[in-house]
Structure prediction request, 174 residues.
Amino acid sequence: MNKNLLKVVYSALLAALACVATMIIRIPSVGSVGYVNIGDTIVLISAWLLGGVYGGLAAGIGTALADLLAGYAYYVPGTFIIKFLMAFIAFLIFKTVKKEIIGLLLSGLVAELIMIVGYFFYKALILGKGFEAAIPSVFSNIAQGVTSLAIGIILYYALEKAKFNNAFRSSLNK
Prediction:
């Protein structure tokens, strides 16, 4: 099978998983109109397994679609850009760091920091709510980030133990 076609198929699969993970558990945010979810788990998995532009597209498209379906259309552009950047930068860090667990932790922490800061400025400046109104969402986003990072690392190692990660990567290198 064509390697680029396979990357597109995997991206679509991960985008669908990101959408479902974002929508399946939605806990209303404190002091915000949004919700806490575990979609970032798949954003991180997309970065760690698929990486680069394809992982970023899977993350951005899947989570933006979830916002659209949940009635938060005004968040779609911000979500797409923030989640794309999260996955793309997490991939770059993960690929650079030699020790796997350090790479997972560091890339995940940076990605979640991008999410927290990204949504803070998106709400404050792009949506015009102001910095004071954007502050409460920071705490919900921290909870979402910590939870998604923990689940993401557990899922990554579960997939590793099942020998999925190597099979996934080797299918892309054929």
The chain has a mean pLDDT of 93. Residues 159 and 165 are 6 Å apart (CA to CA).
